[in-house]
Amino acid sequence: MLYNIRRVRPYLTQEAAQVLIQALVISRLDYCNSLLAGLPACAIKPLQLIQNAAARLVFNLPKFSHVTPLLRTLHWLPVEARIYYKTIVLAYGAVRGTAPPYLQALIRPYTQTRALRSSTSGLLAPLPLQKHSSRSAQSKLFAALAPQWWNKLPHDARTVESLTTFRRHLKPYLFKEYLE
After folding, report:
1. Tell me: the pLDDT tens digits for 137-157?
2. Nearest CA to 161 among 100, 96, 117?
3. Is 178 exposed, middle or buried (0-12, 13-18, 19+ CB in 10 A)?
4. Cβ neighbours of residue 123 closer than 8 Å, sequence gap 6 or more
5. Taking CA atoms, which of 13, 49, 151, 152 is between 20 and 30 Å from 140?
């Protein structure tokens, strides 16, 4: 797809190229990317290389141009951050009860043994690791990663009431974590 867009790129404005690439390339990188949560960096790197090439194509830059400023200008998160974003949004739906029941069953709120000020912090209970299964395989499950990542979020992001506001808090947080 990038090859075909590169052929018509001289006839496109930067805005038109960005819209075309977002529609045809970035949307494919985002499709079901929460399933890639927990994979090693070597498995995600080919997808990141595609996103880097797409960013360079938007600005019509050579192959070895530095990509971080381009991603920041385009307001695109790196692939790893996109996976994190999608997983955390699914976790938000499970916490708020808007996700499918099978996802809600995987997420449990953290309950403390006694009343503390932190009881309203919106934390999730971590998945107890079973002795008989592979710890490395189990640590890549949504039920293990979502609570772990959720608990690392700032308190104000975890406790917002609407999905729109949650996304508005989450994206700048991820930009700060991954692109600065």
Report:
1. 666 788 889 999 999 999 889
2. 96
3. middle
4. 109, 110, 150, 151, 158
5. 49
Decide: pTM greater than 0.85.
yes
* SS3 state at 5: helix
**Tokens in use for 171?**
């994206």
CA 174/CA 180 separation, integer angstroms: 10
Q: Where are the alpha helices (DSSP H) in the chain?
A: 2-8, 14-21, 27-30, 41-59, 68-74, 79-96, 101-104, 135-138, 142-152, 155-158, 163-179
Q: Give the C-alpha separation, 81 to 85, whole Å.
A: 6
Task: Give φ, ψ of 31 to 5 degrees.
Answer: -65, 120
At residue 117, does pLDDT exceed 70? no
Q: How many other CB atoms sit within 10 Å of the CB of residue 155?
A: 11
Read off the DSSP letter of residue 133. S
Q: Give the whole-angstrom CA distance, residue 142 versus residue 9.
A: 39
Distances (CA, A) of 47 to 41, 50, 172, 179, 180: 10, 5, 22, 17, 21
